[in-house]
Amino acid sequence: MAFRRGYEAFLRTVRAGFRGAHGARCARPQILGANAAAAAVLTCQYSNQRTISSCEASAAGGSSSIIRFRVDSDRPGLLSEATEVLKKQQINIRDARISTEEASPRATHVYIVEDRGGGGLSDQRLAEVRAALQQLASGSCEAEPWPLFSSEEVSKHQTPESGIWVSYKDGVYDITSFVQNHPGGKDKIMLAAGKAIDPFWRIYQQHTGRGNALELLETMRIGDLSDPPKESSGACSCPYDSDPERHPGLIFHNNKPCNAELPSELMMDSWLTPNPVWFIRHHHPVPVVDPEEFRLCIE
Fold it and tell me: 18 and 63: one domain?
């Protein structure tokens, strides 16, 4: 139990340190290698800390690489030691995690990494990783690029049977296991199945404003998007640009959409609460209504 608490604390440190510079997290280990048949792979096997088989590698593409360090007998501190080895190689660690086999000393240490200049690891860098990690324990090590998916491939995953995928910026995410737990309801999140969620989050900006949604999304990342949407270079198309000005004395809990309340200091200014300081609760932008043209018909 003490080892597990120490390991979890270590992971929080690694993730916090990288997120400050890159804002990215890793996907679940069991799906990291999906559709990566053409990916560059380096496989090295070790016994008694000596290489006993050949290594094969080709150029590593993509924005990052996946390193799987499989050990025959795991031990406390090995994850930290391997992390220090990678840092000495000037490799940026996007995430680190460990999976164990039930009733077995074997374990797999998984690292999502970027080279010091960004991007996946080259042949030479993969070889350097092999040479460094082989000093730590007997087992095997694999490194391969982060899988790339196109928007067309993402669009094919809209059901639980095929997996429910979405994209956000340059990432691809498998949200199948999360759909039932979506705070806004299953029906709402399924509107984005197989699509980019960028336009949805431009409206529901509470997802990006609070930060926890981004963190949760990154835990479901399975690869990179090969054709991410281009950022608009023209005028801002934010749907909240036309929202009315609000009283600066309100206590704002969110700006887009606006959620605010009356502070206690203003409560007794008037027996009738003035409109500008009335409680505000929105999920969407405020509609633009032209009083000269707007008509309400009652039948």
Answer: yes
